[in-house]
Specification:
Layout (H helix, E strand, L loop, with lengths): L1 E7 L2 E8 L8 E4 L2 H7 L5 E5 L5 E5 L9 H14 L4 H14 L7 E6 L9 E5 L6 E2 H6 L3 H20 L2 E3 L7 E3 L5 E3 L4 E3 L4 H11 L8 H17 L1
Parallel strand pairs: 1-3
Antiparallel strand pairs: 1-2, 2-6, 3-4, 4-5, 5-7, 6-7, 8-10, 9-12, 10-11
Protein name: Protein kinase domain-containing protein
InterPro entries: Kinase-like_dom_sf (IPR011009)
Pfam family, one: Kdo
Length: 235
């Protein structure tokens, strides 16, 4: 744990970082074309460090203290900064669960929070940037039908690995994964929750997860339903 200096769009900020083993050289975070592409499918701002290429996910406060002072105080100051329930910490915990289940995720370089209540960009997650990858949606669109089915089989196997570990994904869609040209799936959005007790309740949780409208069209969602049902009954 250390306090690190971060230059964010030319402004110098201080963050309390965990698991950060880099030198005392300040991080210089900037946006480029990659940022704009990733922000089209991400809920965070995306930056890159100009010296190391490290990718940074920055999550801002939900409320403005001038407009909603009470909500800002309890949600963004007390809950996130004092009780440490900020986005980067939650994502790091989820990444550890996903990795333990056998899924691939980018390596986490560091994570932390700005203790300055007037810095709206309170949550900071630093992770390795992967070159030569595309979003799952982009990759899927470029496949022929046979390759799509092979890809979906791999996608379903990852979901089953997570289920065997006792977890289900909260927001399942193709832009939560990156794909290498070989088809290897890398999970970048790892928000998961524990499965309920009882086999029927567990299957309902999985079914809800794979039924979200953002997960492909009706035809391919049905294919995923059928494949997952077979995997679940065989487990």
């Amino acid at each position: 744990m250390k306090v690190a200096t971060v230059k964010l769009e030319g402004q110098q900020r201080s963050y309390l970082l965990f698991e950060y083993a880099s030198s005392s050289t300040p991080l210089h975070l900037y946006k480029d074309e990659r940022s704009r592409l990733l922000e089209q499918v991400a809920s965070s701002e995306i930056y890159f460090d100009e010296s190391t290429g490290t990718m940074a996910k920055v999550k801002s406060d939900k409320h403005l203290w001038r407009q909603r002072p009470l909500r800002w105080f309890f949600r963004d100051f007390i809950e996130k900064r004092l009780l440490f329930q900020f986005e980067a910490r939650k994502e790091v915990r989820s990444k550890k669960v996903v990795r333990a289940a056998g899924l691939l995720t980018p390596h986490c370089v560091a994570w932390g929070v700005s203790l300055n209540p007037f810095n709206r960009r309170g949550s900071l997650l630093l992770m390795e940037h992967l070159d030569g990858v595309m979003t799952g949606e982009q990759y899927f669109k470029g496949l022929d039908e046979a390759s799509r089915r092979r890809f979906l089989a791999q996608f379903c196997e990852d979901i089953m690995r997570l289920a065997r570990a006792g977890y289900v994904h909260r927001d399942l869609h193709m832009n939560n994964v990156l794909c290498k040209p070989t088809g290897t799936i890398i999970w970048v959005d790892t928000h998961v929750k524990p499965m309920p007790r009882g086999n029927r309740a567990k299957w309902r949780a999985i079914y809800r997860s794979i039924s979200q409208r953002g997960l492909l069209d009706d035809h391919y969602r049905q294919w995923i339903h059928d494949d997952m049902k077979q995997r679940w009954l065989a487990s």
